[in-house]
Protein backbone atom coordinates (compact mmCIF):
# COMPACT_ATOMS: atom_id res chain seq x y z
CA UNK A 1 0.00 0.00 0.00
CA UNK A 2 1.57 3.27 -1.06
CA UNK A 3 1.48 5.99 1.52
CA UNK A 4 0.60 9.32 -0.11
CA UNK A 5 -0.42 12.65 1.35
CA UNK A 6 -0.55 15.55 -1.07
CA UNK A 7 -3.56 14.51 -3.17
CA UNK A 8 -5.51 13.00 -0.29
CA UNK A 9 -4.70 15.91 1.99
CA UNK A 10 -5.69 18.45 -0.61
CA UNK A 11 -9.08 16.92 -1.35
CA UNK A 12 -9.84 16.38 2.32
CA UNK A 13 -8.65 19.87 3.03
CA UNK A 14 -11.11 21.33 0.55
CA UNK A 15 -13.92 19.48 2.31
CA UNK A 16 -12.77 20.63 5.72
CA UNK A 17 -12.66 24.27 4.65
CA UNK A 18 -16.09 24.02 3.08
CA UNK A 19 -17.39 22.88 6.45
CA UNK A 20 -15.05 25.07 8.47
CA UNK A 21 -15.86 28.55 7.24
CA UNK A 22 -19.37 28.34 8.61
CA UNK A 23 -22.25 30.72 9.14
CA UNK A 24 -21.73 33.13 12.01
CA UNK A 25 -24.52 34.46 14.22
CA UNK A 26 -27.04 32.19 12.47
CA UNK A 27 -29.79 34.10 10.68
CA UNK A 28 -33.30 33.00 9.73
CA UNK A 29 -32.60 34.21 6.20
CA UNK A 30 -29.91 31.57 5.64
CA UNK A 31 -31.97 29.89 2.94
CA UNK A 32 -31.98 32.99 0.73
CA UNK A 33 -29.46 33.14 -2.17
CA UNK A 34 -26.41 35.33 -1.62
CA UNK A 35 -27.34 37.42 -4.64
CA UNK A 36 -30.66 38.32 -3.03
CA UNK A 37 -28.98 40.00 -0.06
CA UNK A 38 -28.38 43.19 -2.00
CA UNK A 39 -30.38 45.09 -4.58
CA UNK A 40 -27.85 47.77 -5.38
CA UNK A 41 -24.42 47.34 -6.92
CA UNK A 42 -23.16 50.06 -4.60
CA UNK A 43 -23.68 47.91 -1.49
CA UNK A 44 -20.45 47.34 0.45
CA UNK A 45 -19.44 44.49 2.75
CA UNK A 46 -19.45 46.87 5.70
CA UNK A 47 -23.17 47.47 5.19
CA UNK A 48 -24.07 43.86 4.32
CA UNK A 49 -25.52 41.21 6.58
CA UNK A 50 -24.23 38.36 4.43
CA UNK A 51 -20.82 38.18 2.77
CA UNK A 52 -18.78 35.42 1.17
CA UNK A 53 -15.26 34.08 0.85
CA UNK A 54 -13.63 32.38 -2.14
CA UNK A 55 -12.47 29.03 -0.77
CA UNK A 56 -10.05 28.38 -3.63
CA UNK A 57 -8.22 31.61 -2.82
CA UNK A 58 -7.96 30.68 0.85
CA UNK A 59 -6.40 27.32 -0.08
CA UNK A 60 -3.87 28.88 -2.47
CA UNK A 61 -2.96 32.01 -0.48
CA UNK A 62 -3.24 31.23 3.23
CA UNK A 63 0.31 30.62 4.47
CA UNK A 64 -0.84 28.31 7.26
CA UNK A 65 -2.28 25.90 4.69
CA UNK A 66 0.92 26.00 2.65
CA UNK A 67 2.96 25.11 5.75
CA UNK A 68 0.43 22.45 6.73
CA UNK A 69 0.75 20.82 3.30
CA UNK A 70 4.55 20.82 3.67
CA UNK A 71 4.33 19.14 7.08
CA UNK A 72 1.95 16.47 5.82
CA UNK A 73 4.03 15.88 2.70
CA UNK A 74 7.22 15.48 4.75
CA UNK A 75 5.56 13.02 7.13
CA UNK A 76 4.12 11.05 4.23
CA UNK A 77 7.48 10.82 2.45
CA UNK A 78 9.26 9.78 5.65
CA UNK A 79 6.69 7.04 6.30
CA UNK A 80 6.88 5.84 2.70
CA UNK A 81 10.68 5.74 2.82
CA UNK A 82 10.63 3.74 6.06
CA UNK A 83 8.12 1.24 4.67
CA UNK A 84 10.13 0.78 1.48
CA UNK A 85 13.34 0.25 3.47
CA UNK A 86 11.72 -2.49 5.57
CA UNK A 87 10.22 -4.10 2.48
CA UNK A 88 13.58 -4.18 0.71
CA UNK A 89 15.23 -5.78 3.76
CA UNK A 90 12.67 -8.60 3.75
CA UNK A 91 13.06 -9.05 0.00
CA UNK A 92 16.82 -9.42 0.46
CA UNK A 93 16.29 -12.10 3.12
CA UNK A 94 13.93 -13.98 0.82
CA UNK A 95 16.43 -13.76 -2.03
CA UNK A 96 19.20 -15.09 0.24
CA UNK A 97 17.01 -17.96 1.35
CA UNK A 98 16.12 -18.89 -2.22
CA UNK A 99 19.79 -18.79 -3.14
CA UNK A 100 20.87 -21.06 -0.26
CA UNK A 101 17.80 -23.28 0.09
CA UNK A 102 19.33 -26.14 -1.86
CA UNK A 103 22.22 -26.44 0.61
CA UNK A 104 20.04 -26.26 3.72
CA UNK A 105 18.60 -29.15 5.66
CA UNK A 106 14.84 -29.72 5.71
CA UNK A 107 14.66 -28.41 9.29
CA UNK A 108 16.62 -25.29 8.38
CA UNK A 109 14.41 -24.62 5.38
CA UNK A 110 11.25 -25.05 7.46
CA UNK A 111 12.53 -22.77 10.24
CA UNK A 112 13.65 -20.12 7.76
CA UNK A 113 10.37 -20.22 5.87
CA UNK A 114 8.39 -19.83 9.10
CA UNK A 115 10.60 -16.92 10.16
CA UNK A 116 10.19 -15.21 6.79
CA UNK A 117 6.45 -15.76 6.87
CA UNK A 118 6.27 -14.16 10.31
CA UNK A 119 8.34 -11.23 9.10
CA UNK A 120 6.07 -10.82 6.09
CA UNK A 121 2.98 -10.70 8.31
CA UNK A 122 4.65 -8.24 10.68
CA UNK A 123 5.62 -6.05 7.73
CA UNK A 124 2.06 -6.00 6.40
CA UNK A 125 0.80 -4.94 9.83
CA UNK A 126 3.50 -2.27 10.08
CA UNK A 127 2.61 -0.98 6.62
CA UNK A 128 -1.07 -0.72 7.55
CA UNK A 129 -0.20 1.07 10.81
CA UNK A 130 2.06 3.51 8.96
CA UNK A 131 -0.70 4.33 6.49
CA UNK A 132 -3.20 4.79 9.32
CA UNK A 133 -0.79 7.12 11.12
CA UNK A 134 -0.41 9.29 8.02
CA UNK A 135 -4.20 9.52 7.76
CA UNK A 136 -4.46 10.38 11.46
CA UNK A 137 -1.91 13.14 10.96
CA UNK A 138 -4.00 14.51 8.10
CA UNK A 139 -7.16 14.45 10.21
CA UNK A 140 -5.35 16.14 13.08
CA UNK A 141 -4.01 18.93 10.88
CA UNK A 142 -7.36 19.45 9.19
CA UNK A 143 -9.11 19.60 12.55
CA UNK A 144 -6.71 22.34 13.66
CA UNK A 145 -7.35 24.20 10.41
CA UNK A 146 -11.10 23.82 10.83
CA UNK A 147 -11.00 25.20 14.37
CA UNK A 148 -8.68 28.05 13.37
CA UNK A 149 -10.89 29.14 10.46
CA UNK A 150 -14.12 28.87 12.45
CA UNK A 151 -12.68 30.89 15.35
CA UNK A 152 -11.26 33.53 13.01
CA UNK A 153 -14.45 33.82 10.97
CA UNK A 154 -16.61 34.15 14.06
CA UNK A 155 -14.45 36.98 15.44
CA UNK A 156 -14.15 38.63 12.03
CA UNK A 157 -17.91 38.58 11.48
CA UNK A 158 -18.55 39.99 14.93
CA UNK A 159 -16.04 42.79 14.39
CA UNK A 160 -17.49 43.71 10.98
CA UNK A 161 -21.13 43.27 11.95
CA UNK A 162 -21.87 40.45 9.49
CA UNK A 163 -24.74 38.11 10.25
CA UNK A 164 -23.48 35.32 7.99
CA UNK A 165 -20.29 34.39 6.15
CA UNK A 166 -20.69 32.05 3.20
CA UNK A 167 -18.00 30.24 1.25
CA UNK A 168 -17.86 29.02 -2.32
CA UNK A 169 -15.45 27.29 -4.64
CA UNK A 170 -15.32 26.66 -8.35
CA UNK A 171 -17.79 23.97 -9.37
CA UNK A 172 -19.77 24.17 -6.12
CA UNK A 173 -23.47 24.43 -7.09
CA UNK A 174 -24.63 25.69 -3.69
CA UNK A 175 -23.68 29.26 -4.57
CA UNK A 176 -24.06 30.18 -8.23
CA UNK A 177 -23.60 33.93 -7.87
CA UNK A 178 -22.63 36.55 -5.35
CA UNK A 179 -22.34 40.29 -5.92
CA UNK A 180 -18.63 41.21 -5.99
CA UNK A 181 -19.25 43.89 -3.39
CA UNK A 182 -19.95 41.10 -0.89
CA UNK A 183 -16.64 39.32 -1.55
CA UNK A 184 -14.42 39.74 1.53
CA UNK A 185 -11.80 37.16 0.45
CA UNK A 186 -8.86 39.54 0.05
CA UNK A 187 -9.31 41.12 3.47
CA UNK A 188 -9.82 37.74 5.14
CA UNK A 189 -6.65 36.30 3.58
CA UNK A 190 -4.69 39.42 4.56
CA UNK A 191 -5.79 39.20 8.18
CA UNK A 192 -5.36 35.40 8.35
CA UNK A 193 -1.77 35.70 7.13
CA UNK A 194 -1.05 38.60 9.48
CA UNK A 195 -2.33 36.58 12.45
CA UNK A 196 -0.38 33.49 11.36
CA UNK A 197 2.83 35.51 10.92
CA UNK A 198 2.46 36.70 14.54
CA UNK A 199 1.87 33.13 15.74
CA UNK A 200 5.05 31.93 14.01
CA UNK A 201 7.26 34.51 15.76
TrEMBL record:
Protein name stated in the entry: OmpH family outer membrane protein
Superkingdom to which the source organism belongs: Bacteria
Gene Ontology terms: biological process: protein stabilization
The family this protein is said to belong to: Belongs to the Skp family.
InterPro entries per record: Chaperone_Skp, Skp_dom_sf
Leader sequence residues: 1-22
Gene3D superfamilies with a match to the protein in the record: Skp domain
GO MF annotation, one: unfolded protein binding
Coiled-coil zones: none
Keywords: Signal
Species for this entry: Mucilaginibacter pallidiroseus
SUPFAM superfamilies (UniProt xref): OmpH-like
Record-level GO cellular component terms: cytosol
Amino acid sequence: MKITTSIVAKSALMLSIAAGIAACNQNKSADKPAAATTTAASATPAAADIVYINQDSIVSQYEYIKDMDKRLDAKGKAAQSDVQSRQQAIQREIADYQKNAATMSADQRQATEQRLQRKGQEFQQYQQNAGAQVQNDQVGEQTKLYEKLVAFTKDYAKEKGYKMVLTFKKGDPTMLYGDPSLDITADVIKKLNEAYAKDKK
